[in-house]
Amino acid sequence: MRTYLGKMRGEPFKRGRVGWQDALWSWVGAFSGMALICWLSTHWLSQQLLIVGSFGATSVLIYAAPDSPFAQPSHVLFGSMFSAAIGVACFQLLGATSVAMALAVSLSILVMQLTHTVHPPGAAAALIAVGGGSSVHQLGWWYPLAPIGIGCVVMLAVAILVNNLARHRRYPRYW
């Protein structure tokens, strides 16, 4: 029991410093990626179709933590799309219920782990598929493709371009 409770104390935290240049590159990437998605949504699609809340968290990973395994392209794209599809399936089977929401999140985590595509915002995409309201529900099986797939591809393209402009950054680490 002592060992079990002892694990809950954690380890001493070693704070890594982020320099102003790294923070600035993260800002440039996040602003550019989200601005492009918003522009495409309003000018190309004439609606807010590509704007999904999980893209905020994806931005943190691909622009501020580009070395993270969760930020690599296969994780971003496939983790998000698999999870979105699971969310759609859960909604279609169980409606916008708490059980459907719990299943969407937990099954998306299971599938992402089994496919080696863990991307935490993917679980949010699954949850949005169930609880996102009628505008999301009307998309049905299109939801994993647009907005999720197209939005991820746009953000990844920006991440590859912006992160590699900085001499000290390299993105992706692997595909």
From TrEMBL:
The reply on keyword Nucleotide-binding is: no
Keyword set, alphabetical order: Membrane, Transmembrane, Transmembrane helix
Q: What is this protein called?
A: HPP family protein
Q: Where does the sequence pass through the membrane?
A: 24-42, 86-111, 123-142, 148-166
Cite the HPP transmembrane region domain residue spans from the record: 17-172
